[in-house]
Amino acid sequence: GEKVEQHESTLSVREGDSAVINCTYTDTASSYFPWYKQEAGKSLHFVIDIRSNVDRKQSQRLTVLLDKKAKRFSLHITATQPEDSAIYFCAASNPNTGNYKYVFGAGTRLKVIA
Amino acid sequence: GPKVLQIPSHQIIDMGQMVTLNCDPVSNHLYFYWYKQILGQQMEFLVNFYNGKVMEKSKLFKDQFSVERPDGSYFTLKIQPTALEDSAVYFCASSLARRGVFFGKGTRLTVV
């Protein structure tokens, strides 16, 4: 079955710098890739997603890149702020199964240092 | 925004006893999920549920596990009997379809 690897377990950046979190997946049938953010004591909160019919999607300071050939996708956060500090989870899904289950990466703890 | 509520946030139970984890999903959602996260490990899919039936379950969803949503009330995960390896954080989620999956804060289950 699908396996998702999240390459950075922790990442520290200075406020204002960019942060990049990388994920890889194994199942070529996966075509939907959401990202979630979890702040301390809170639930997972959807931040951005990408479908396999595009290779880039941007929402304000967040950009997701998808390289289907390499089975790799990444979250780029520009102009980081202290409130970006959280654990970020990537996930992959094959919506054609009709089951909408997600396979998650292990999470990246992002720390933005003021 | 829409919220998935999980009750309780933490439960401690003796090994061999039964436990029911409760989830109050987003009101108009149709798909319901449970995920399990052992401390320091990945969050893993357990089961999803639609139209009163289990759609898919993973190998982590042992015979001792069951789910139901009687009369559109709470979506529950029951473990009977519990084992030490069931200690984990269990996340409930719900969605209308593929996108927009909302997660609860999790229930930390400790089996002693």
Please give the structural blueprint.
The complex is a heterodimer of chains A (114) and B (112).
Chain A: E1 4-6, E2 10-14, E3 19-25, E4 32-38, E5 45-51, E6 56-59, E7 62-67, E8 72-77, E9 86-92, E10 103-104, E11 108-113
Parallel strand pairs in A: 2-11
Antiparallel strand pairs in A: 1-3, 3-8, 4-5, 4-9, 6-7, 7-8, 9-10, 9-11
Chain B: E1 5-7, E2 10-13, E3 19-24, E4 31-37, E5 43-50, E6 53-57, E7 65-68, E8 75-79, E9 88-95, E10 102-103, E11 107-111
Parallel strand pairs in B: 2-11
Antiparallel strand pairs in B: 1-3, 3-8, 4-5, 4-9, 5-6, 7-8, 9-10, 9-11
Description:
- Helix content of chain A is 0%, strand content 53%.
- Chain A contains no helices and eleven strands.
- In chain A, the strands form two sheets. In chain A, strands 2, 4, 5, 9, 10 and 11 form a six-stranded mixed sheet that branches. A five-stranded antiparallel sheet of chain A has the order 1-3-8-7-6, with no helix packed on it.
- In chain A, a hairpin with a 2-residue loop joins strand 6 and strand 7.
- Chain B has no helices and eleven strands.
- Helices cover 0% and strands 51% of the residues of chain B.
- With 112 residues, chain B is mainly beta.
- Chain B is globular.
- The N and C termini of chain B lie far apart (36 Å).
- The mean pLDDT of chain B is 93.
- The chains are: A mainly beta (114), B mainly beta (112).
- At the A-B interface, strand 4, strand 5 and strand 10 of A face strand 4, strand 5 and strand 10 of B.
